[in-house]
Design a protein that fits this description.
The protein has 179 residues and is of the alpha/beta class. The chain has eight helices and eight strands; from the N terminus they run βαββαββαβααβααβα. The chain has a four-stranded parallel sheet with strand order 6-1-7-8, with helices on one face. The protein has a four-stranded mixed sheet with strand order 3-2-5-4.
């Protein structure tokens, strides 16, 4: 049994969902984030995210229910810019073992909680990630905006335990490195 919590960070298209799915298949309980963004094709409520409205999200912020949360300004194709919220509840963090987070969210984790985490940074080449994103048919946000934003978010990242640059990484190797 693994005692560490695994936090997966990486830019769009780096393989975060794939790694989370594989680690879940190996027995780690996935933590689900809440989001106010529209559900994508093939995503399921309570499986990929807990999709909630902005009112419910703000209510949880006001009740101090989130361990971490962030907002993002997005520019969907053919529509007005929107703000989407993402967050991980304190309860979900306590009861789960593997999570996907952003560098900003990782920076919000307390020093005490950080000591029990193994952070995996998927640092996959931009051209590979761009090709992956093109296959998603995600019309909710611009691929270029996401890639450019990720370049900025990950430019000075230093808080991680393992950096992976191989796009064909083996999830079992990562699992075996955890305590």
């Amino acid at each position: 049994m693994k005692h560490e919590k695994c936090i997966i960070i990486g830019p769009s298209g780096s393989g975060k969902d794939y790694l989370m799915r594989k680690l879940s298949e190996m027995g780690l309980k996935p933590g689900l984030k809440w989001t106010t963004r529209p559900q994508r094709k093939l995503e399921e409520q309570g499986v990929n995210y807990n999709f909630v409205n902005e009112s419910k999200f703000n209510e949880t912020i006001n009740c101090d229910g989130f361990l971490v949360y962030q907002s993002f300004l997005v520019t969907p194709e053919k529509s007005e810019p929107q703000i989407w919220y993402y967050g991980l509840t304190k309860e979900e963090f306590r009861n789960s073992q593997v999570f996907i987070m952003t560098p900003g969210e990782v920076s919000m984790i307390s020093e005490i909680d950080r000591k029990s985490c193994f952070i995996v940074y998927l640092d996959i080449d931009r051209s590979i990630r761009e090709d992956r994103l093109k296959t998603r048919e995600d019309k909710n946000d611009s691929i270029k905006r996401r890639l450019d934003s990720d370049d900025e978010d990950f430019r000075i990242l230093k808080d991680y335990d393992l950096r992976i640059t191989d796009p064909e990484f083996d999830a079992e190797d990562i699992y075996n490195l955890m305590n």
